Amino acid sequence: MEKELVRISISIPKDLADFLDDLVIKNKYSSRSEFIRDMIREFAVEESWNKPKEEVIGVLTIIYDHHKRELSQKMIDIQHNHYINILCSTHIHLDHHNCLEVIIIKGKADEILNVVNSISGLNGVKFAKLTKTANIKL
């Protein structure tokens, strides 16, 4: 079902409008409207992460040295201790020393951040980035 569209008008300085147009073109958006809709949705996701009772979703991407003593077991233990929040994980061998793991986590923001901080702070984790999302109804 397609939502009703509402036309709004805004006034912004020309240099800001030029910057917006450059971003629309650079990011291959079909229109300014579509770009602005995506910006609002992104803001809505951030707002969801600021509400303590709201359920959100995160994707933790990590690269780590799998030769680091007991690191893999520590990461597994953290995930098992939070198994209700861990939806799935994918493990890829990048080279002889490095693995990439992607972990999808669902729950309250503070619970997810606790899992993320526990894993990303481990010795041997070389890179960790959380991508925040939420099931927004916009």
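(the above was protein one; protein two follows)
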Amino acid sequence: MMVDLDPSGQVTQRDPDRAQRQFLNYAFFKLDPAFRRLPQAERDEIKAEFLAAASSWTEDAPAEKGLIQRSYGLAGVRGDVDLMLWRIAFDLREFQEAQARLNRTRLMGYLSQPYNYIAMQKRSQYVNRIEGSGHGLEILPGQGKYLFIYPFIKTRAWYDLTPHARQGMMDEHIYASGPFKGVRINTSYSYGIDDQEFVVSFDSDYPQEFVDLVHRLRYTEASNYTLSDTPMFTCLKKDLSDVLNDLA
């Protein structure tokens, strides 16, 4: 199939695409240990209040809004964050509404947010030639027991390459990933709406397979054009009630 020789639309002056897309929010939280010194009954009451506020964001919304929320625990696997909420919506303002509901709870007085990423789904110019025109438009997150996440920035030199050169490197990258069927990638784009260029997340039941995948990709030519791909987060999929019980 043909390589897209004008992926940005700069030459052809392609019209802006205003079609509805999914926005993604990866919201990470850290608990103040002071919360654990509260009486047990008070902790239980505060956690229940937070759980109700978080759940209501999707439960109160009509289905056509397409709101999705998944919860993950990071206690014991990372020191600077304890839990993560993966939110998906067609309107960025929905994330403000979700956070406002949490901000009105007492638990937010004990939670900080060391990291918070915003990104958007769009078709991949590299994968479409292989997997079809619909690839990468919508995702249903949280299929695996684990979610591995990192923000990602390419070097400026990457954008100076010809479309054929970039496509060739990405073909190698995709080919190298081929055997790792137990890892599902979600690539989202942050150009202009957050500090990073992409947020990449991987659903899987097999952490060992993901480690081997990342190791293999280090040997591809495209990896030479990575400017930054940290911090990296290993998130364990759990009901939010279980996540909160892990914290206190």
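Reviewer note on protein two: Strands lie at 23-31, 68-73, 83-89, 111-112, 116-120, 146-154, 183-189, 198-204, 226-228, 233-237.
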